[in-house]
Amino acid sequence: MRIPKITGLQYATLKIVGLGNQTGKDVRAKLRKVGANHTLTAFYQLIGRLRSEEYLNQRREALDESHPGERECIYSITRKGTKVLEETCRFYEIFTGQ
Question: What confidence tens digit (pLDDT) does each residue in 78-91 have?
């Protein structure tokens, strides 16, 4: 088994998005809960890397009728993202004996 292709922070991000489609705001909040207090710039660099590797998809949706023209990003995990997440889990299971 090879060393994972993703970092711990990328793993956490994919795991969060893998639970169901998430807004960028929700992903950042969940990452902060586990101690990943990164700047907005660093967060979007992380998302950009995951998108460029085709691990995440992004779409933009309107917030609601009271905020016409305002949109937010919604992220979803791709098949490729799910595969790398599963490979990473299997790699670490070797060391934990699970």
Answer: 999 999 999 999 98
Closest CA to 40 of 25, 52, 50, 30: 25
Cα 17 from Cα 97, distance rounded (Å) = 26
Residues belonging to the chain: 98
Round the average pLDDT of the chain to a whole number and report it.
90
CA atoms within 13 A on the CB side of 85: 21
The helix or strand, by DSSP H or E, that contains position 63, with its residue range, turns out to be none
Higher per-residue pLDDT: 97 or 55: 55
CA 6 remoteness from chain centre: 11
Residue pLDDT, tens place only, 23-45: 999 999 999 999 998 899 999 99
Q: Are 74 and 21 in contact (CB under 8 A)?
A: yes
The two three-digit tokens of residue 85, written as one number: 């997440």
